[in-house]
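Chapter review: from sequence to fold.
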Amino acid sequence: MLHLIWGLLNLGLLIYFLIACFKFVKVARNHIGGFGSVVFVFGLLSFVGGSKSEGNAAKLYQIKTFNFAIKDSLEQNSVKFAHFILEDQIVTKYDLALNYGKIPHSEINTPISAYSGTTGLVIGTHWKPIKISVLKTSDKDTFKYLVYGILEWKLLGVRLYTQSKIYEGVKLWK
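The token string follows.
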């Protein structure tokens, strides 16, 4: 519920900010003229947009994958994908995606790679997984996982609070 309220607060403040900017431009046009208003709008947009290079923008939307084993060292056609929900809020879900496969001449599953992400309403929050650990257990049908990450709570793009989260458990290989 907190995620929904936080997202609506961010959306409401953004709409209020845009309305205030349009009113300010209207007033500024009367005092400093049309050219001055256009310069102000472009300056404000460049300030709000920040100075991100293409490389930094690409990194921002890139999924961080944690690799455990080389895919070529496993049996051909044994690689599988599993998806697990770590936390299920009303409007947001935190999940773990895992690639795994079998060691040649064995029935033992081995993790290849994993990543964690969010789905749903993510306005005003940003999930950053820091460490993902996937370990085999003595039972060949289960594995143990540990996901450590940081949830940043932002208001209009400004980070106000950083919350650390740890998810751990034991799951069956699917």
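Two observations follow directly from the output. The helical segments are 2-49, 54-60. Residues 2-49 form the longest helix (48 residues).
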